[in-house]
Protein backbone atom coordinates (compact mmCIF):
# COMPACT_ATOMS: atom_id res chain seq x y z
CA UNK A 1 0.00 0.00 0.00
CA UNK A 2 1.29 3.43 -0.84
CA UNK A 3 1.60 6.11 1.81
CA UNK A 4 -0.54 8.31 -0.44
CA UNK A 5 -3.45 5.89 -0.24
CA UNK A 6 -3.23 5.58 3.53
CA UNK A 7 -3.06 9.38 3.81
CA UNK A 8 -6.06 9.83 1.53
CA UNK A 9 -8.17 7.24 3.31
CA UNK A 10 -7.19 8.63 6.72
CA UNK A 11 -8.19 12.14 5.60
CA UNK A 12 -11.51 10.80 4.30
CA UNK A 13 -12.12 8.95 7.56
CA UNK A 14 -11.21 11.83 9.84
CA UNK A 15 -12.73 14.74 7.96
CA UNK A 16 -15.77 13.16 6.30
CA UNK A 17 -16.74 9.95 8.10
CA UNK A 18 -16.05 10.69 11.75
CA UNK A 19 -17.97 13.98 11.83
CA UNK A 20 -20.99 12.35 10.18
CA UNK A 21 -20.97 8.90 11.81
CA UNK A 22 -23.58 9.90 14.40
CA UNK A 23 -25.82 11.25 11.61
CA UNK A 24 -25.53 7.99 9.64
CA UNK A 25 -26.38 6.08 12.80
CA UNK A 26 -29.38 8.30 13.58
CA UNK A 27 -30.80 8.36 10.05
CA UNK A 28 -30.03 4.67 9.45
CA UNK A 29 -28.60 5.28 6.02
CA UNK A 30 -25.23 5.56 4.38
CA UNK A 31 -25.47 8.40 1.84
CA UNK A 32 -24.67 7.56 -1.76
CA UNK A 33 -21.92 10.19 -1.90
CA UNK A 34 -20.05 8.30 0.83
CA UNK A 35 -20.22 5.07 -1.14
CA UNK A 36 -19.13 6.89 -4.29
CA UNK A 37 -16.12 8.33 -2.48
CA UNK A 38 -15.23 4.89 -1.10
CA UNK A 39 -15.34 3.56 -4.65
CA UNK A 40 -13.13 6.42 -5.88
CA UNK A 41 -10.59 5.62 -3.19
CA UNK A 42 -10.61 1.98 -4.28
CA UNK A 43 -11.88 0.68 -0.94
CA UNK A 44 -14.63 -1.41 -2.55
CA UNK A 45 -12.11 -3.42 -4.54
CA UNK A 46 -9.17 -3.04 -2.21
CA UNK A 47 -8.12 -6.70 -2.25
CA UNK A 48 -9.16 -7.45 -5.81
CA UNK A 49 -6.20 -7.71 -8.22
CA UNK A 50 -5.67 -4.78 -10.55
CA UNK A 51 -6.48 -6.90 -13.60
CA UNK A 52 -10.03 -7.15 -12.27
CA UNK A 53 -10.26 -3.44 -11.48
CA UNK A 54 -9.17 -3.46 -7.86
CA UNK A 55 -6.21 -2.12 -5.91
CA UNK A 56 -4.62 -5.53 -5.35
CA UNK A 57 -3.76 -4.82 -1.72
CA UNK A 58 -2.37 -7.58 0.46
CA UNK A 59 -4.43 -8.63 3.51
CA UNK A 60 -2.27 -6.66 5.93
CA UNK A 61 -2.67 -3.38 4.06
CA UNK A 62 -6.39 -4.03 3.67
CA UNK A 63 -6.65 -4.66 7.40
CA UNK A 64 -4.96 -1.38 8.20
CA UNK A 65 -7.38 0.49 5.96
CA UNK A 66 -10.25 -1.35 7.64
CA UNK A 67 -9.05 -0.05 10.99
CA UNK A 68 -8.79 3.53 9.71
CA UNK A 69 -12.32 3.47 8.28
CA UNK A 70 -13.80 1.47 11.17
CA UNK A 71 -12.43 3.86 13.76
CA UNK A 72 -14.35 6.68 12.09
CA UNK A 73 -17.61 4.92 11.22
CA UNK A 74 -18.64 1.32 11.84
CA UNK A 75 -21.40 1.29 9.23
CA UNK A 76 -19.04 2.54 6.53
CA UNK A 77 -16.51 -0.10 7.52
CA UNK A 78 -19.30 -2.68 7.35
CA UNK A 79 -19.64 -1.99 3.62
CA UNK A 80 -16.02 -3.07 3.24
CA UNK A 81 -16.72 -6.20 5.30
CA UNK A 82 -19.78 -7.17 3.28
CA UNK A 83 -18.97 -6.00 -0.23
CA UNK A 84 -15.19 -6.32 -0.36
CA UNK A 85 -14.48 -9.18 2.05
CA UNK A 86 -17.55 -11.40 1.91
CA UNK A 87 -18.54 -10.96 -1.73
CA UNK A 88 -15.53 -9.81 -3.79
CA UNK A 89 -13.02 -12.06 -2.03
CA UNK A 90 -15.27 -15.09 -2.33
CA UNK A 91 -16.02 -14.45 -5.98
CA UNK A 92 -12.33 -13.94 -6.62
CA UNK A 93 -11.36 -17.24 -4.99
CA UNK A 94 -14.23 -19.47 -6.00
CA UNK A 95 -16.00 -17.92 -8.97
CA UNK A 96 -15.52 -19.26 -12.48
CA UNK A 97 -13.66 -17.09 -14.95
CA UNK A 98 -16.95 -16.33 -16.68
CA UNK A 99 -18.55 -15.23 -13.40
CA UNK A 100 -15.57 -13.07 -12.50
CA UNK A 101 -15.69 -11.39 -15.90
CA UNK A 102 -19.41 -10.81 -15.49
CA UNK A 103 -19.34 -9.26 -12.02
CA UNK A 104 -15.93 -8.62 -10.53
CA UNK A 105 -14.82 -5.47 -12.43
CA UNK A 106 -18.07 -3.66 -11.58
CA UNK A 107 -17.94 -4.80 -7.98
CA UNK A 108 -14.28 -3.85 -7.60
CA UNK A 109 -14.94 -0.40 -9.02
CA UNK A 110 -18.03 -0.02 -6.86
CA UNK A 111 -20.38 0.58 -9.77
CA UNK A 112 -22.35 -2.36 -8.42
CA UNK A 113 -22.65 -3.33 -4.75
CA UNK A 114 -22.77 -6.87 -3.43
CA UNK A 115 -24.20 -8.39 -0.26
CA UNK A 116 -24.10 -11.81 1.36
CA UNK A 117 -27.49 -13.48 1.77
CA UNK A 118 -26.97 -16.36 4.17
CA UNK A 119 -29.02 -15.72 7.34
CA UNK A 120 -32.65 -16.74 7.55
CA UNK A 121 -35.31 -16.71 10.26
CA UNK A 122 -34.32 -20.29 11.14
CA UNK A 123 -30.66 -20.24 10.16
CA UNK A 124 -28.31 -18.06 12.17
CA UNK A 125 -25.36 -19.74 13.85
CA UNK A 126 -26.55 -23.01 12.33
CA UNK A 127 -25.84 -21.74 8.84
CA UNK A 128 -26.22 -25.19 7.33
CA UNK A 129 -29.91 -25.09 8.26
CA UNK A 130 -30.83 -22.73 5.42
CA UNK A 131 -34.31 -23.42 4.08
CA UNK A 132 -34.04 -21.38 0.90
CA UNK A 133 -34.24 -23.89 -1.93
CA UNK A 134 -32.92 -24.19 -5.46
CA UNK A 135 -33.91 -26.54 -8.21
CA UNK A 136 -31.99 -27.17 -11.40
CA UNK A 137 -34.18 -26.27 -14.34
CA UNK A 138 -33.24 -26.06 -18.01
CA UNK A 139 -29.84 -24.32 -18.08
CA UNK A 140 -30.22 -22.64 -14.73
CA UNK A 141 -31.73 -22.78 -11.26
CA UNK A 142 -34.95 -21.65 -9.61
CA UNK A 143 -34.65 -20.19 -6.10
CA UNK A 144 -37.32 -19.82 -3.43
CA UNK A 145 -36.86 -18.63 0.12
CA UNK A 146 -36.63 -15.91 2.71
CA UNK A 147 -33.39 -14.28 3.85
CA UNK A 148 -33.25 -11.99 6.86
CA UNK A 149 -30.78 -9.56 8.49
CA UNK A 150 -28.90 -9.10 5.23
CA UNK A 151 -26.59 -6.11 5.56
CA UNK A 152 -26.74 -3.73 2.57
CA UNK A 153 -29.52 -5.76 0.90
CA UNK A 154 -31.48 -2.52 0.87
CA UNK A 155 -29.15 -1.00 -1.71
CA UNK A 156 -27.08 -3.89 -3.12
CA UNK A 157 -27.25 -4.78 -6.80
CA UNK A 158 -26.05 -8.37 -6.45
CA UNK A 159 -26.79 -10.97 -3.77
CA UNK A 160 -24.59 -13.93 -2.97
CA UNK A 161 -27.37 -16.34 -2.00
CA UNK A 162 -26.92 -19.63 -0.18
CA UNK A 163 -29.61 -22.23 -0.89
CA UNK A 164 -30.18 -25.95 -0.54
CA UNK A 165 -31.57 -28.78 -2.60
CA UNK A 166 -32.40 -31.55 -0.11
CA UNK A 167 -29.25 -30.95 1.88
CA UNK A 168 -26.99 -30.20 -1.07
CA UNK A 169 -26.04 -26.57 -0.43
CA UNK A 170 -24.96 -24.31 -3.26
CA UNK A 171 -24.30 -20.61 -3.78
CA UNK A 172 -25.58 -18.28 -6.50
CA UNK A 173 -25.15 -14.70 -7.57
CA UNK A 174 -28.59 -13.17 -7.96
CA UNK A 175 -29.19 -9.78 -9.58
CA UNK A 176 -31.45 -7.46 -7.65
CA UNK A 177 -33.65 -6.75 -10.67
CA UNK A 178 -34.41 -10.42 -11.32
CA UNK A 179 -38.19 -11.05 -11.34
CA UNK A 180 -39.29 -12.56 -8.02
CA UNK A 181 -36.76 -10.71 -5.86
CA UNK A 182 -38.43 -8.52 -3.23
CA UNK A 183 -36.52 -6.42 -0.71
CA UNK A 184 -38.04 -5.41 2.64
CA UNK A 185 -35.91 -2.89 4.57
CA UNK A 186 -35.51 -3.52 8.32
CA UNK A 187 -34.74 -1.01 11.05
CA UNK A 188 -34.42 -0.66 14.80
CA UNK A 189 -31.04 -2.31 15.26
CA UNK A 190 -28.62 -1.95 18.16
CA UNK A 191 -25.70 -1.12 15.87
CA UNK A 192 -24.67 -1.21 12.21
CA UNK A 193 -27.72 0.99 11.81
CA UNK A 194 -26.64 2.57 8.53
CA UNK A 195 -25.99 -0.73 6.78
CA UNK A 196 -29.33 -0.87 4.99
CA UNK A 197 -30.26 -4.21 6.53
CA UNK A 198 -33.17 -5.89 4.79
CA UNK A 199 -35.07 -9.08 4.22
CA UNK A 200 -34.75 -10.69 0.81
CA UNK A 201 -37.70 -12.66 -0.46
CA UNK A 202 -37.11 -14.97 -3.38
CA UNK A 203 -40.12 -16.34 -5.25
CA UNK A 204 -39.46 -18.53 -8.28
CA UNK A 205 -36.33 -16.54 -9.05
CA UNK A 206 -34.66 -17.89 -12.19
CA UNK A 207 -30.86 -17.73 -12.05
CA UNK A 208 -28.69 -18.59 -15.09
CA UNK A 209 -26.43 -21.60 -14.67
CA UNK A 210 -23.30 -19.50 -15.02
CA UNK A 211 -24.26 -17.68 -11.79
CA UNK A 212 -23.56 -20.77 -9.72
CA UNK A 213 -20.54 -19.96 -7.52
CA UNK A 214 -18.00 -22.79 -7.51
CA UNK A 215 -19.90 -26.05 -7.96
CA UNK A 216 -23.15 -27.72 -6.90
CA UNK A 217 -22.71 -28.80 -3.29
CA UNK A 218 -19.88 -26.37 -2.55
CA UNK A 219 -22.19 -23.80 -0.99
CA UNK A 220 -21.50 -24.48 2.65
CA UNK A 221 -18.18 -26.32 2.67
CA UNK A 222 -16.36 -23.85 0.43
CA UNK A 223 -18.40 -20.73 -0.34
CA UNK A 224 -19.82 -19.99 3.12
CA UNK A 225 -16.59 -20.86 4.84
CA UNK A 226 -14.51 -18.79 2.45
CA UNK A 227 -16.85 -15.83 2.83
CA UNK A 228 -16.95 -16.06 6.61
CA UNK A 229 -13.19 -16.48 6.78
CA UNK A 230 -12.72 -13.17 4.98
CA UNK A 231 -15.57 -11.62 6.92
CA UNK A 232 -14.01 -12.61 10.23
CA UNK A 233 -10.70 -11.14 9.19
CA UNK A 234 -12.45 -7.86 8.51
CA UNK A 235 -14.40 -8.01 11.78
CA UNK A 236 -11.19 -8.67 13.70
CA UNK A 237 -9.81 -5.36 12.40
CA UNK A 238 -13.16 -3.73 13.10
CA UNK A 239 -12.73 -4.65 16.76
CA UNK A 240 -9.30 -3.04 16.81
CA UNK A 241 -10.83 0.06 15.24
CA UNK A 242 -13.56 0.41 17.86
CA UNK A 243 -11.21 -0.33 20.75
CA UNK A 244 -8.74 2.27 19.46
CA UNK A 245 -11.52 4.84 19.11
CA UNK A 246 -12.69 4.05 22.65
CA UNK A 247 -9.16 4.37 23.99
CA UNK A 248 -8.71 7.77 22.40
CA UNK A 249 -12.12 8.91 23.67
CA UNK A 250 -11.45 7.89 27.25
CA UNK A 251 -7.94 9.39 27.28
CA UNK A 252 -8.96 12.77 25.93
CA UNK A 253 -11.98 12.95 28.22
CA UNK A 254 -10.16 11.76 31.33
CA UNK A 255 -7.43 14.33 30.82
CA UNK A 256 -9.90 17.22 30.64
CA UNK A 257 -12.65 16.28 33.06
CA UNK A 258 -12.03 17.29 36.67
CA UNK A 259 -13.63 15.77 39.75
CA UNK A 260 -12.47 15.94 43.37
CA UNK A 261 -10.13 18.74 42.32
CA UNK A 262 -8.12 16.84 39.72
CA UNK A 263 -8.50 15.32 36.25
CA UNK A 264 -10.34 12.01 36.54
CA UNK A 265 -7.51 10.49 34.52
CA UNK A 266 -5.33 10.89 37.61
CA UNK A 267 -7.52 8.51 39.60
CA UNK A 268 -6.03 5.05 39.78
CA UNK A 269 -9.13 3.13 38.78
CA UNK A 270 -9.50 5.24 35.64
CA UNK A 271 -5.84 4.66 34.86
CA UNK A 272 -6.53 0.95 35.13
CA UNK A 273 -9.22 1.15 32.42
CA UNK A 274 -6.93 3.20 30.17
CA UNK A 275 -4.04 0.78 30.71
CA UNK A 276 -6.24 -2.24 29.97
CA UNK A 277 -7.59 -0.63 26.81
CA UNK A 278 -4.15 0.28 25.50
CA UNK A 279 -2.75 -3.16 26.27
CA UNK A 280 -5.65 -5.05 24.77
CA UNK A 281 -5.90 -2.99 21.59
CA UNK A 282 -2.16 -3.42 21.03
CA UNK A 283 -2.48 -7.17 21.49
CA UNK A 284 -5.54 -7.38 19.23
CA UNK A 285 -3.80 -5.43 16.47
CA UNK A 286 -0.85 -7.81 16.59
CA UNK A 287 -3.18 -10.83 16.36
CA UNK A 288 -4.79 -9.21 13.31
CA UNK A 289 -1.40 -8.58 11.74
CA UNK A 290 -0.40 -12.18 12.39
CA UNK A 291 -3.63 -13.40 10.76
CA UNK A 292 -2.98 -11.02 7.85
CA UNK A 293 0.48 -12.41 7.24
CA UNK A 294 -0.87 -15.97 7.31
CA UNK A 295 -3.67 -15.00 4.91
CA UNK A 296 -1.09 -13.53 2.54
CA UNK A 297 0.86 -16.79 2.66
CA UNK A 298 -2.38 -18.74 2.08
CA UNK A 299 -1.37 -20.72 5.12
CA UNK A 300 -3.61 -23.58 6.18
CA UNK A 301 -3.64 -22.13 9.70
CA UNK A 302 -4.88 -18.72 8.54
CA UNK A 303 -8.53 -19.60 9.15
CA UNK A 304 -8.01 -20.62 12.76
CA UNK A 305 -5.65 -17.75 13.56
CA UNK A 306 -8.27 -15.43 12.09
CA UNK A 307 -10.88 -16.97 14.39
CA UNK A 308 -8.57 -16.27 17.33
CA UNK A 309 -8.07 -12.67 16.21
CA UNK A 310 -11.80 -12.13 15.64
CA UNK A 311 -12.74 -13.59 19.01
CA UNK A 312 -10.13 -11.63 20.95
CA UNK A 313 -10.62 -8.39 19.09
CA UNK A 314 -14.41 -8.35 19.41
CA UNK A 315 -14.14 -9.27 23.10
CA UNK A 316 -11.69 -6.50 23.95
CA UNK A 317 -13.63 -4.02 21.82
CA UNK A 318 -16.70 -4.70 23.93
CA UNK A 319 -14.67 -4.19 27.12
CA UNK A 320 -12.84 -1.07 25.94
CA UNK A 321 -15.99 0.60 24.65
CA UNK A 322 -17.84 -0.24 27.88
CA UNK A 323 -14.96 1.33 29.81
CA UNK A 324 -15.12 4.40 27.58
CA UNK A 325 -18.80 4.79 28.50
CA UNK A 326 -17.81 4.37 32.16
CA UNK A 327 -15.06 7.00 31.99
CA UNK A 328 -17.36 9.48 30.27
CA UNK A 329 -20.09 8.83 32.85
CA UNK A 330 -23.29 10.69 32.00
CA UNK A 331 -21.78 11.94 28.78
CA UNK A 332 -20.91 8.36 27.90
CA UNK A 333 -24.60 7.49 28.01
CA UNK A 334 -25.57 10.37 25.74
CA UNK A 335 -25.51 10.51 21.97
CA UNK A 336 -23.74 13.87 22.10
CA UNK A 337 -20.52 11.83 22.50
CA UNK A 338 -19.43 8.84 20.40
CA UNK A 339 -18.87 6.49 23.36
CA UNK A 340 -22.40 5.04 23.50
CA UNK A 341 -22.34 4.40 19.73
CA UNK A 342 -18.97 2.68 19.94
CA UNK A 343 -20.36 0.51 22.74
CA UNK A 344 -23.39 -0.51 20.66
CA UNK A 345 -21.26 -1.19 17.61
CA UNK A 346 -18.81 -3.33 19.58
CA UNK A 347 -21.60 -5.62 20.78
CA UNK A 348 -22.49 -6.39 17.17
CA UNK A 349 -18.98 -7.71 16.54
CA UNK A 350 -19.47 -10.42 19.16
CA UNK A 351 -22.40 -11.74 17.16
CA UNK A 352 -21.80 -11.33 13.43
CA UNK A 353 -19.64 -13.63 11.27
CA UNK A 354 -19.86 -16.31 13.99
CA UNK A 355 -20.71 -15.55 17.60
CA UNK A 356 -18.00 -15.47 20.24
CA UNK A 357 -19.42 -18.75 21.57
CA UNK A 358 -18.93 -20.45 18.20
CA UNK A 359 -15.42 -19.03 17.99
CA UNK A 360 -14.69 -20.45 21.45
CA UNK A 361 -15.86 -23.90 20.38
CA UNK A 362 -13.68 -23.85 17.26
CA UNK A 363 -10.68 -22.43 19.09
CA UNK A 364 -10.98 -25.03 21.85
CA UNK A 365 -11.10 -27.80 19.24
CA UNK A 366 -7.96 -26.35 17.73
CA UNK A 367 -6.26 -26.28 21.13
CA UNK A 368 -7.14 -29.92 21.78
CA UNK A 369 -5.89 -30.94 18.34
CA UNK A 370 -2.66 -29.13 18.87
CA UNK A 371 -1.91 -29.94 22.49
CA UNK A 372 -4.03 -32.77 23.88
CA UNK A 373 -2.32 -35.64 22.10
CA UNK A 374 1.12 -34.27 22.74
CA UNK A 375 0.64 -34.02 26.48
CA UNK A 376 -1.97 -36.71 27.09
CA UNK A 377 -1.91 -37.58 30.79
CA UNK A 378 -3.53 -40.68 32.22
CA UNK A 379 -5.98 -39.91 35.02
CA UNK B 1 4.77 -23.64 3.57
CA UNK B 2 5.04 -24.91 0.00
CA UNK B 3 7.04 -28.06 -0.41
CA UNK B 4 7.01 -29.16 -4.00
CA UNK B 5 9.48 -31.88 -3.09
CA UNK B 6 6.97 -33.88 -1.04
CA UNK B 7 6.96 -37.28 -2.67
CA UNK B 8 4.79 -39.29 -0.30
CA UNK B 9 1.71 -37.16 -0.77
CA UNK B 10 -0.75 -39.60 0.87
CA UNK B 11 1.43 -39.79 4.01
CA UNK B 12 1.59 -36.03 4.25
CA UNK B 13 -2.18 -35.70 3.87
CA UNK B 14 -2.76 -38.49 6.37
CA UNK B 15 -0.56 -36.72 8.90
CA UNK B 16 -2.34 -33.41 8.38
CA UNK B 17 -5.75 -35.02 8.80
CA UNK B 18 -4.67 -36.88 11.91
CA UNK B 19 -3.40 -33.66 13.45
CA UNK B 20 -6.69 -31.96 12.78
CA UNK B 21 -9.15 -34.64 13.85
CA UNK B 22 -10.80 -34.82 17.21
CA UNK B 23 -8.32 -35.25 20.03
CA UNK B 24 -10.75 -37.24 22.17
CA UNK B 25 -10.43 -40.50 20.27
CA UNK B 26 -7.64 -42.17 18.38
CA UNK B 27 -9.49 -42.86 15.17
CA UNK B 28 -8.06 -45.19 12.59
CA UNK B 29 -8.94 -44.50 8.99
CA UNK B 30 -7.97 -45.82 5.61
CA UNK B 31 -6.97 -43.80 2.59
CA UNK B 32 -10.33 -44.63 1.03
CA UNK B 33 -12.53 -43.59 3.97
CA UNK B 34 -14.80 -40.63 3.31
CA UNK B 35 -13.61 -38.29 6.07
CA UNK B 36 -16.76 -36.16 5.94
CA UNK B 37 -19.31 -38.98 5.89
CA UNK B 38 -17.47 -40.83 8.66
CA UNK B 39 -17.51 -37.68 10.77
CA UNK B 40 -13.72 -37.46 11.22
CA UNK B 41 -13.87 -33.78 10.23
CA UNK B 42 -16.78 -31.49 9.40
CA UNK B 43 -17.42 -30.09 5.96
CA UNK B 44 -16.31 -26.72 7.40
CA UNK B 45 -12.83 -28.19 7.33
CA UNK B 46 -12.94 -28.48 3.53
CA UNK B 47 -11.76 -24.92 2.99
CA UNK B 48 -8.80 -25.52 5.29
CA UNK B 49 -7.98 -28.66 3.30
CA UNK B 50 -8.04 -26.60 0.11
CA UNK B 51 -5.56 -24.13 1.61
CA UNK B 52 -3.44 -26.98 2.95
CA UNK B 53 -3.29 -28.74 -0.44
CA UNK B 54 -2.44 -25.54 -2.29
CA UNK B 55 0.17 -24.26 0.16
CA UNK B 56 1.83 -27.60 0.94
CA UNK B 57 2.11 -28.96 -2.58
CA UNK B 58 2.38 -25.64 -4.40
CA UNK B 59 -0.54 -26.34 -6.70
CA UNK B 60 -3.58 -24.29 -7.58
CA UNK B 61 -6.88 -26.10 -7.53
CA UNK B 62 -8.96 -24.84 -10.47
CA UNK B 63 -12.56 -23.69 -10.02
CA UNK B 64 -14.01 -26.97 -11.25
CA UNK B 65 -11.75 -28.91 -8.89
CA UNK B 66 -13.22 -27.31 -5.78
CA UNK B 67 -15.75 -29.98 -4.91
CA UNK B 68 -16.28 -31.78 -1.62
CA UNK B 69 -15.72 -35.07 -3.43
CA UNK B 70 -12.14 -34.15 -4.35
CA UNK B 71 -11.34 -33.59 -0.66
CA UNK B 72 -13.34 -36.46 0.78
CA UNK B 73 -10.53 -38.98 1.31
CA UNK B 74 -6.76 -39.25 1.43
CA UNK B 75 -6.77 -41.05 -1.93
CA UNK B 76 -8.93 -38.46 -3.65
CA UNK B 77 -6.77 -35.60 -2.40
CA UNK B 78 -3.59 -37.41 -3.43
CA UNK B 79 -5.11 -38.03 -6.87
CA UNK B 80 -6.00 -34.35 -7.12
CA UNK B 81 -2.43 -33.33 -6.32
CA UNK B 82 -1.07 -35.82 -8.85
CA UNK B 83 -3.41 -34.53 -11.58
CA UNK B 84 -2.49 -30.92 -10.89
CA UNK B 85 1.23 -31.68 -10.84
CA UNK B 86 0.93 -33.54 -14.13
CA UNK B 87 -0.96 -30.65 -15.65
CA UNK B 88 1.74 -28.18 -14.67
CA UNK B 89 4.59 -30.53 -15.57
CA UNK B 90 6.02 -30.72 -12.00
UniProtKB/TrEMBL annotation, chain A:
Recorded GO terms, molecular function? acyl-CoA dehydrogenase activity; flavin adenine dinucleotide binding
Q: Which cofactor does it need?
A: FAD
Segments forming domain Acyl-CoA oxidase/dehydrogenase middle: 115-205
Superkingdom of the organism of origin:
Bacteria
Pfam families reported in the protein's UniProt record: Acyl-CoA_dh_1 (PF00441), Acyl-CoA_dh_M (PF02770), Acyl-CoA_dh_N (PF02771)
The keyword GTP-binding is annotated on this UniProt entry: no
Protein's name according to its UniProt entry: Acyl-CoA dehydrogenase
What organism is recorded for this protein? Actinophytocola xinjiangensis
TrEMBL record, chain B:
Q: Which residues belong to any copy of the Carrier domain?
A: 7-85
InterPro entries registered for this protein in UniProt: ACP-like_sf, PP-bd_ACP
Q: Where does the source fall among the domains of life?
A: Bacteria
Name of the protein this chain belongs to: Phosphopantetheine attachment site family protein
Q: Which organism is it from?
A: Actinophytocola xinjiangensis
The organism's lineage is: Bacteria, Bacillati, Actinomycetota, Actinomycetes, Pseudonocardiales
Amino acid sequence: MTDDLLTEVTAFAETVLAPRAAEFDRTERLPREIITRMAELGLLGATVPERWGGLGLDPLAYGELTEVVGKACASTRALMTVHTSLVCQTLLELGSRRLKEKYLPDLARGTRLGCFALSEPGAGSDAAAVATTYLAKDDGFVLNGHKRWISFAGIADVFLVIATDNGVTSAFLVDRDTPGVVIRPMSGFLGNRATHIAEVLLTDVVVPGENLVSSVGAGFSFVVNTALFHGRYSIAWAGVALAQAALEQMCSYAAGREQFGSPIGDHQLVRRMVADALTSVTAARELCRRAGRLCAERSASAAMETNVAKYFSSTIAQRATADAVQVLGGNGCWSGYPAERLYREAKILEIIEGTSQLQQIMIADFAYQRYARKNKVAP
Amino acid sequence: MANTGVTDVPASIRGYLRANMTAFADVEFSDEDNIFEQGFVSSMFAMQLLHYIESTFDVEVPDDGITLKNFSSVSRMADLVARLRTATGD
